[in-house]
Automatic annotation (TrEMBL):
Record: active site: 377
Keywords: Glycosidase, Hydrolase
Record-given protein name: Aryl-phospho-beta-D-glucosidase BglH
Biological processes per GO annotation: carbohydrate catabolic process
Keyword Transport: no
Higher taxonomy: Bacteria, Bacillati, Bacillota, Bacilli, Bacillales
Entry's Gene Ontology cellular component terms: cytosol
Amino acid sequence: MTNNKRFPEGFLWGGAIAANQVEGAYLEDGKGLTNVDLLPTGEKRRGIMEGHITDLKPNPEDFYPSHEAIDFYHNYKEDIALFAEMGFKSFRLSISWARIFPNGDDAAPNEAGLQFYDDLFDELRKHNIEPVVTIAHFDVPVSLIERYNSWESRKLVDLFEKYSITIFERYKDKVKYWMTFNEINMLLHLPFMGAGIVLKEGANRDQVLYQAAHHQLVASAKAVKACHEIIPDAQIGCMLAAGMFYPYTSNPDDVFKAMEKDRESFFFIDVQSRGEYPGYAKRFFKDHNLNIKMEPEDEQILKDNTVDYIGFSYYSSRTTSTDPEVLKNATSGNVFGSVSNPYVSKSEWGWTIDPKGFRITANQLYDRYQKPLFVVENGLGAKDEINADGTITDDYRIDYLKKHLNEMGEAIEDGVDIIGYTSWGPIDIVSASTGEMKKRYGYIYVDRDNEGNGTLSRKKKKSFDWYKNVIATNGEEL
């Protein structure tokens, strides 16, 4: 497929990972325990992700895939060399808060943790790969959960600001693209995984979550302020788990419900990008008797420190309805849930495959915010089989990405300002939603199974050379 709509000069092609899904070495070199280190595989996982957890330490009977993951901590040079071979212009990664401040509120940072990321950024720079760094990709030090129930407490605002300032000062000459919180809207759907929130029995869920959201939004604004002061030539953005909701029918009630579902996510970016709470959020608080505690200075902090760009993930669109009969066919394959859409297909894990929805979502975000967009996650989780000759033919992944990249090119033609594309995960990693390794996204296969068995050796898939050519032609050849 040839795409004559050439992507902009300097477009940041690359890939994206998260510390907790690749690094492993979960307590090595002084790192503290995090919420994600407490997510086991199996039936318990979803309930814990949703905030139903009583014991904040690993259970010896359970398997925790993040503890070793793909051991990127010890293999990053080999992996980055493979990314460089593909021609990556950028690489999105996250810093683990607990590697820098093991308890979250330590007096001084952990030098070994700081040095690890120094070495990692140096390796990227050696290969002319631009780091794109997420400050918090779901990681919260467990000690902050034990003492404060994480972001429910205002105390985390100052602690996060200290952490942000520490890494800005340390890496100011090495990192020019930053994001504050990964998929910040995940807080409302998977509170423990997304933000370390434990939902205590009898607690008002909305009150707890929107109070935590306010604290994250203020912390994000303070990080933006610090970044602009410490690294004046840096760009710092927010990050949304995106994918618009379609109304199931043209019934105005369905259309209105789809708008409300979109707004659940837009709420966070409205505040981060526009600098104030939207009217619909204020009405929601009023209608649900929520009393969000805010400090007198918060309004001005939010207003004065908006983001430079909008980062977002896109995997699938969603569909919603007000008809109880239609709702019976809803799927929970994706975290957000969706009524089955008869016009699109699904992945093996029940995620809608909707390339046109990618174009629609990009246009929707740009129309709404008029700020540059950065596609920082997009990809297909699938089972890969190794052929008798040792090759891995993942044509289904190439097809998925080809169609999505074509629609991204169309969005750029529509006038949408997109500065880069980092597909999710360029190397096989632990799935955030299921904890599985068999749900693979990468151009690079990692020899590891769901139980943690395997050599961790790396092997190129067919998609490796395909993506290498996409980058080499700046998206002209898909």
